[in-house]
Write a structure and sequence with these properties.
Blueprint lengths: L19 E5 L5 H8 L3 E6 L3 H11 L3 E3 L3 H4 L14 E4 L19 E2 L8 E2 L3 H12 L3 E7 L8 H14 L1 E9 L10 E9 L33 E3 L14 E2 L15 E4 L2 E3 L1 H7 L13 H7 L3 H14 L7
Parallel strand pairs: 1-2, 1-4, 2-3, 4-7, 11-12
Antiparallel strand pairs: 5-6, 7-9, 8-9, 10-13, 12-13
Helix pairs in contact: 1-8, 4-5
Length: about 325
């Protein structure tokens, strides 16, 4: 196991010597912690939600802080020069419009609030705003994460448009559906990752015509059952307990956890909820992460597991960035 799912920020060795990263749609910093574990320096972030931004700043203290919609951020003419010298631009555009758990096609093209306190946005265009930002900043690599539902049904048309826009922006792209349970995370969380490689860089190709960049994203780490670490909390002690069990999930402790979401409650058995210690391990979040006033399950359910990002960052570094060092 390359990385340990149970860890602490205070004990982590963030070398910051592998390159510079900027994170968009940063939430509490799940992907940020992954890049830092892989040795990168995450120099700043963009996030629309002030509450999430406060949590991010509390844990990461970034040099550059842009708490505003990406539509405003991408049009700024006062960005620091360091943002035009990035190794990786990272982003997880809000994806509820494509989630199999949402309304999907019924919500496409509609303005929605992602959560209380945010401005209304058309969520399914945020990916294209992110690509426009990439075209402006011209990082070496662009990493974009989204839900599995993006590859299903009518949503696949968006993938075609995403690839077209990346191509116009100057990036060759490969994408793959990955499962966190195969990457050292004790959670069956499937997400699609787009890896955009700036076309002037050196990279291998998947075919003789050089149409598709090839980066090895095959992961097969041994799956981690949650019975190795879980703790429980009696339902009567839980402030979140109610008799309404709609959407509740009883976990199979002999396997990795189900995907952690913001809305479900997770039980070991009929009488015992899992506690925050267990939730953090399932999400590969550090045990000493400061959630401020946010419920850990909510923030972790919104985040890319840090270890998932760390594994991808290592592959990008070894297969692309190190080949293109000046």
């Amino acid at each position: 196991m390359k990385y340990n799912y149970e860890w602490n920020l205070k004990d982590a060795n963030f070398t910051k010597d592998q390159g510079k990263v900027f994170s968009c749609f940063a939430c509490g910093g799940g992907s940020t912690m992954g890049y830092k574990l892989a040795g990168f320096d995450v120099i700043g972030f963009n996030e629309i939600d002030p509450k999430m931004a406060e949590c991010y700043i509390s844990n990461h203290n970034p040099r550059y802080r842009f708490i505003e919609p990406i539509q405003e951020f991408k049009n700024r003419d006062d960005l620091p020069q360091e943002l035009y010298e990035l190794d990786i631009l990272d982003g997880s555009p809000p994806c509820s419009s494509f989630s199999m758990a949402g309304n999907r096609e019924k919500d496409w093209g509609k303005e929605k609030k992602f959560r209380e306190g945010q401005a209304e946005q058309i969520l399914d265009t945020l990916f294209f705003d992110f690509i426009e930002l990439a075209e402006k900043l011209k990082p070496k690599i662009v990493v974009a994460e989204n839900v599995k539902g993006l590859l299903m049904g009518e949503a696949k048309k968006y993938v075609t448009e995403i690839l077209k826009e990346f191509d116009k922006a100057g990036y060759a792209v490969t994408y793959k559906l990955l499962n966190a349970a195969k990457m050292g995370v004790p959670q069956k969380r499937e997400r699609v990752f787009f890896i955009g490689i700036r076309k002037d860089l050196k990279y291998d190709c998947a075919d003789m015509f050089g149409n598709e960049p090839l980066i090895d994203l095959e992961f097969n780490e041994k799956e981690i059952a949650i019975n190795k670490f879980y703790k429980t909390i009696q339902k009567k002690e839980s402030q979140n307990y109610s008799d309404n069990r709609f959407g509740d999930i009883i976990l199979n402790t002999n396997k990795p956890s189900n995907t952690i979401t913001t809305i479900n409650r997770y039980w070991i058995d009929e009488n015992n909820l899992i506690d925050d210690y267990t939730i953090k391990n399932i999400g590969s979040y550090p045990q000493d992460y400061n959630f401020l006033n946010n419920e850990p399950k909510y923030l972790i359910g919104m985040s890319v597991p840090p270890l998932m990002t760390a594994q991808i960052a290592d592959r990008i570094n070894d297969q692309i960035l190190k080949r293109n060092k000046k």
